[in-house]
Automatic annotation (TrEMBL):
The keyword Cytoplasm does not apply. PANTHER family: LANOSTEROL SYNTHASE, TERPENE CYCLASE/MUTASE FAMILY MEMBER. InterPro entries: SQ_cyclase_C, SQ_cyclase_N, Squalene_cyclase, Terpene_synthase_CS, Terpenoid_cyclase/PrenylTrfase. The keyword Secreted does not apply. It comes from Schizosaccharomyces octosporus (strain yFS286). This is Terpene cyclase/mutase family member.
Amino acid sequence: MGYDIDKQAYNTEVSYFFIQVETMEPSRFRPDWSKTVPELDKRLWRLNIGPDGGESWEFLTSEEEAKSRPLSFAEKYFLGLDLEDAPNVQPAKTPLESAVHGYEFFRRLQLNDGHWASPYEGPMFLLPGIVFSFYITQTAFPRGWPEEITQYLVNHTNDDGGWGIHTEGASTVFGTSLNYAVLRILGMKKDHPIAVRARACLHRLGGAIANPHWGKLWLATLNCYDWNGMNPIPPELWLLPDWVPVHPGRWWCHARQVYLPMGYLYGEQLSCPINAFIRELREELYVDDYDSIDFSKHRNTVYETDLCHPHTTVLNSLNWLMDKYFTFVRPQWIRKLGTKKAYQLIQLENENTDYACLGPVNAALNTLCVYYQEGPSSKAFQKIIRRLHEFMWVQPEGMLMRGTNGLQVWEASFTLNALVDSGLCESKMYQKDMIRALEFLDRQQIRNEYAGKGYRHNSKGAWPFSNITQGYTVSDTTSEALRAVLKVQSLPEFGKPVSLSRLREAVDVLLLMQNKDFGFASYEPARASEWLEQLNPAEVFGKIMVEYSYPECTTSVVLALRAFTLYDESYRREEIEKTIRNALSFVIKSQRPDGSWYGSWAICFTYAAMFATDSLATVGRCYENCDVQRKACEFLLSKQRPDGGWSESYMACLTENYTETESSLVTQTSWALLALMHAKYPHRKPIEKGIQFIMKTQASNGSWKQNSIEGIFNKSVAIAYPNYKFYFSIHALGLFARQYGNYISE
Ligand code: LAN
């Protein structure tokens, strides 16, 4: 084999130390299979926090080292180890007491630099990127990775032996073929029962030939798929003048940053050298003999469960045209020019983000491009490989690759907002935590301007979702962070580390982000029309080509701008008022006839309702005086379950219809309650019932469990936000106590 796995990883004593089943959240793992592969001693893992809030796990070399670095409460919690120093409290008697119990637990998870870390799991198509990149570039896997990644995949095998696009999804060719290759690269033998089952499942689904576009590309980089079997990703697109409506610079930033390195790899047709292992893999991944397959006939062969977004006729015609162009016309010098331009932009992205990259997919792809272009001993390669560590997360059932390099700013902001709104900020002890979180936000505000650099939007004054190094402006993260800073800095007990001029810079960025329909999108205002979705080649994701307006993002902006006007009455006041007015009209317009809003970034209608009702509340609209709020309350109340809770499944996002899971869920219940409270629903009873549900489900250490995944993106991929159950519950409990009285009537 052409790669050299870190020897130490395999010299580590494998202790067969099994996870404590009770510490896990039930729907997210399948413990039976975990015993068929070795597990490392979790007590040797430590979480390192960089000066920029970057999070990376390290597997210590010895017990002695472990003794000299005792596990923190947060590390034990994340690793599923015994929490002997956890609080142990009697069930709360009042909502506020329950909020305090919840926060007493949650504050123990705060890291020294003031932020809260979080496993951000769900997507099952990320690990292949990092594992293939390490393999192809012949980079040694860090200690502990092969065992933990294997554990994770084994724990998340579906009953049929395969993997889906996310942890809760049915098996797909994308998930199964790529993760099968991961297990084999990491050393699993092909006759291991897990491998046998996975292969059988893959072959039942049609084999790797039925991969969607991204799966085909990853296998091509591994020399397990022929580049000829790919629909085109011409790097020449980057040579088009910027004004062309389909120019990739106008695409949603994730699409453009993923198709950029894909275009480079496709343009140069870069695959790793073939060796005995690759030959074996080729035979295992396909139903037919690899050498007998005519790949060029399979560009559009995609297994039905993978195919969430079939090609449009426009895309098919364009693919046909491009094929003809490639076969008969394409001058090689233009192709070369295309890959050259693509690499310049890749370099720009790497340098702008200090090699952290926008997200996990482009980070892994850029790693390959840097390797091919600059070589494994280049500084750039060393840096990008090092940064990949920050996407990885270790938890009881193994190691995963996260959807981002963390949620640092997002979570610190919501926690601060919850502490202020719940009134917990009055406690002196909690104020110390808040100062640390505020100072964290202070350090994370983006100070540089990236506008125009590699098609990036303005950034000076914005806050990113994860950390300042990644440094991408996000509309609602900027808003939630701004709101949190404003709220905390308005309280007499706190200083004002974020100066007025920096707060104004945040407002300046936001004011540049409103869409033509008056809503706000995620990272940038939309740069092209929805029509571009016709060219979406991904097959597995919907709505990835351009930016759209979302009621959630729009609300966050409204709330932040409103909070800013209370802090600084004069600055750009007229523009702010106009922006808010228009944004509210977008929120109102996007309400569905049944009173609900569709949520795009978490599951689903309860999430969007929490936001939309809050934006209307900023202008004094409530149940008593506003039809929109009344309909929203009625919708939510019609979904309340007999136990007082609410529950939503990710199927709601796919079907766009309210869909429940088996049991009520703490997070969705908090969202629904917050929505009812924002709308000032006048009857206490149903809200109290929901509050009781949250109180009853609180564990004796003050924490909660969420039995189903909370987040979503691109319509079809579920992603977990495990801290939502803390700060949204605390927020709901505290707000209830303040708004409706701190008592339970029964
Ligand atoms: C996220 C996570 C956060 C999310 C919110 C801030 C909640 C949202 O309101 C705006 C969009 C944003 C920033 C967002 C966009 C898409 C992300 C980055 C993710 C869902 C996390 C993972 C996902 C990313 C695209 C995953 C990689 C997959 C690809 C298809 C490229």
